[in-house]
């Protein structure tokens, strides 16, 4: 006779409690699971600071044999108010079990809030340094930004899409394309979902994508990664880029609201503040912005765009004069925008060949977004491709769709790491990504 596998004898196992919920269990026995964040043995008594996904808590017991830090453990014990313990409660241990013992002490002291080591060392050990409370707080905040992005866009009629990251041509121009050997054919890693998100407007009218994109940045800067998370939006049936900026304005307000609800502890831990998003984020045309930083701050702006110092000064101006951490810089000159950008109109309605409907959004001194209205007319697009000295043959997988009735459309992309870093006062975008890829780093 074969016997059916029997379920393990069900001891009345306590449900797991998270450390953040201890206050609801004052005086009760709870079961916690987590990691040995810190430990102290005072002979008769042992203290274990247990870290779980929701926070840390102090556990105190006697005759515990303490495993190495970071070991996974399970603790059963009674919750007792303790004003000096983190969170105001401690757990008096009645049962302590090592679930998975660490075999080595971690190379960094995880509980330390500041590691006095070379930043490269921190990144070398990223697989375990991410367990530090500050490190993980940044990634939690980013996760909530992304969640807020999804939620708001779905509520506003957007459909999520997924576009190829192995492509036959660049979307943004410039030299920062990663080349790839695609079975003997030249391919590239996508710099942006730009061309595909536009095509998808013909399908769903309003689309968004959350995905990594790739830029072969030769120079190590505090704002550039070689792989970053691009939060992309594209919407059809717009009148102008004003509609796109209005959507982004509402989206940012909703994301900040979500952070207020879900990440207050992380902002407190990092000593950062969640910005108020004005109902109408200030807007300034690029040429006026350049003149302003020269006249007000004496800064001569290099290039055709704003240089990093000009971005910082312009932001400072709008923080001081309008109390806004955000500012839209609008009406970029043609020479500073990619081929797909729609021309601006003159007062008489004719197209202005020198100005576009492209914009950037600055936040606390740095560009976090490019966006704008795109060309939707096939003939105009082909003229633009030629004017930018691109190969029209190589663009047919994109340009053909404009023969089949594309509505006026526009969109934008937010660099998730730049937004996260600026929100939290993190000086380098590398620390706003779990496993950054920079000029010299391919591991871990
Ligand atoms: P752009 O090239 O300006 O525009 O990129 C959009 C946003 O992406 C972020 N970003 C980066 N973040 C980290 N490392 C990098 N190397 C890096 N490069 C860019 C910035 C930037 O504002 N297709 C257009 C967007 C659109 O118009 O919809 C585009 O990719 O935050």
Automatic annotation (TrEMBL):
Keywords: Aminoacyl-tRNA synthetase, ATP-binding, Cytoplasm, Ligase, Nucleotide-binding, Protein biosynthesis. The record marks 86 as: Important for tRNA non-discrimination. It comes from the Bacteria. GO terms for molecular function: ligase activity. It catalyses: tRNA(Asx) + L-aspartate + ATP = L-aspartyl-tRNA(Asx) + AMP + diphosphate. Coiled coil: none annotated. PROSITE patterns: AA_TRNA_LIGASE_II. This is Aspartate--tRNA(Asp/Asn) ligase.
